[in-house]
Amino acid sequence: MEVGIRQGVKANLTQVSQKQLNDLSEDTLSAIDDLVPAGDALVPLGNWGEIPVSDVVVKIVHRVSSRTFLGNDGPRNTQWLDLAQTYTPDISLAGFILDLVPPLLRPLAQWCIPAMHRGRRQLATARGLVAAMIDERRRRQEVQPVSSDGGEKKQVVGSDDAIGWFDRAAGGDARLYDAAAAQLALTFVADHTSANFIAKALLDLARHPEVVRELRREIEREVSGLGWAGWEKANLHRMKLLDSVIKESMRLQPIFFASMLGAVTQEMSLKDGTVLPVGTRIAVSGDGNRDPEVYDKPDEWDGYRYYKMRQGGEREDMAQLACATTEHAGFGVGKHSCPGRFYAADFMKIILCHLLMRYDWKVSEAGPETVVMGWTQMVHPEAKILLRRRS
């Protein structure tokens, strides 16, 4: 199934297409109207209100991404959206607890972890939901004929969403992959990571209103005269300051302290003479994000850092948000880099455009901002931020 997921994502989830840009923009506005309690009876227009930033942003991201992953019915499938909201935290907690247990005891220990039981129930529910979606598409004849290796004619879902991608990657053979697990894997690796980076960028920008003002000028310059329904990919890609802000927030608070986990399959020696025997677990440290030889004042947030790099010079290429380098491994490096990073970069910029133009943002002192679990760090579920609807 893993090969099918990478194939499906790499072949289809690259940059946002023009149609997807319009759909994602429309879905973002709809999600904000429904999910952000500002400008309504809860928080009257012009007043400051406090929201749990991670919770609200995750819900927006699930709503918006569900069209790409599940098709046009995704944003309205409340049962799936509720499931997507809870699955990743539960399965992450279960994995963290299991990692503390000696390997020999894990087959028994798994039955004592409540989060593991919830994850199994969620997977069972997801299988029912996704199977119903696939059956409905076959009933509506949204399929395409393909030939299997044995010459047998099979029918694959022809829709341009993740359901169709995975089915085509498997040649229409449902035995080769788990459609529901594939969708939950996308939710795990895409939605919560994107939501975390959006929430972190908002928290950083709340401390830097001067950068927000410049961002709005940049957005207005690109959208002015076009409106949200008329802007194009080129407008989005010219928002270099917004690109820089997201990348800088990712640099200072990546999700993983170390990434690209692996294991040594044959004994190897490093340049300094260190010998790694077979079975050694290895990972790439995230210290490069704060390397003083690469970054000036590496421990300070500078929203213009990558914007300045893109004004010319030898590091201009590495300054783009979707660029994966050893100096900024937020999306991995080389063959281990995220295959959907170009889409994710556009996706995050679309949502931030609307949030920045719709609301003013201010720091709230209530609660911690970050939670650390193992070698991961995320925006704390209880982190708060103040917002006010702009007139």
TrEMBL record:
Keyword flag Heme: yes
Cross-referenced InterPro entries: Cyt_P450, Cyt_P450_CS, Cyt_P450_E_grp-IV, Cyt_P450_sf
Binding site for heme: C338
SUPFAM superfamilies xrefs: Cytochrome P450 (SSF48264)
One Pfam family here: p450
Molecular-function GO terms, alphabetical: heme binding; iron ion binding; monooxygenase activity; oxidoreductase activity, acting on paired donors, with incorporation or reduction of molecular oxygen
Residues annotated as transmembrane: none
Keyword Iron: yes
Entry keywords, A to Z: Heme, Iron, Metal-binding, Monooxygenase, Oxidoreductase
Residues spanning the signal sequence: none
Cofactor(s), names only, from the UniProt record: heme
Family: Belongs to the cytochrome P450 family.
PANTHER family named in the record: CYTOCHROME P450, CYTOCHROME P450 MONOOXYGENASE AUSG-RELATED
Protein name: Ent-kaurene oxidase
